[in-house]
Amino acid sequence: GAVVSQHPSRVICKSGTSVKIECRSLDFQATTMFWYRQFPKKSLMLMATSNEGSKATYEQGVEKDKFLINHASLTLSTLTVTSAHPEDSSFYICSALGLGKTEAFFGQGTRLTVV
Amino acid sequence: KQEVTQIPAALSVPEGENLVLNCSFTDSAIYNLQWFRQDPGKGLTSLLLIQSSQREQTSGRLNASLDKSSGRSTLYIAASQPGDSATYLCAANTGNQFYFGTGTSLTVIP
Predict the structure, then answer these.
(1) What is the pLDDT of residues B21-39, one digit of tens each?
(2) Phi, psi dihedrals of residue B9, rounded to the nearest 5°
(3) Which residues 54-93 of B are in CB contact (within 8 Å) with A?
């Protein structure tokens, strides 16, 4: 299957700082990327959907000014958690969808801890 | 809005048993349904993808079935092994959006 690389896998940051998470499709062009958040022992919650070159569509209840998503190229999307707080600590996972494809491929996830 | 439910939430079986995980979805208008495996603290590993036109898919000891009209999918694991212990998630794709179930946590006891 196709490969989606997510970086970093773990990050610890101080409250008030911003953290950027990268999601790259290594061997295909991802026209659509999804960002999910997963709370302990819970399923994945879709945060936003981004299409290359356009603004991300955020799910209800997700603060777009806090979770900045950029999908500037067909192989890279970034999620920036701005002014992070301890309650933002979570597991974040991205997935990518190729043009005309219906199978999504997932990154390895990023464990964010805000202290 | 699509809702995906997985039963049971947790399952513990002795090694060697065959088992079935269930996934149900409320909106039958799906493109496909995908089964994933997630190990603790890790990302998702895709196991099987069933297109809406298909009835089942097989990979090794895994077999997934899909009944769109009734909104159900099952994942059958044959001859379970301790290495199969993980959380299994199903996801219904309704176009450009994937709806995930709450997962089944499987423990295979040696």
Answers:
(1) 999 999 999 999 999 999 9
(2) -75, -30
(3) 89, 93
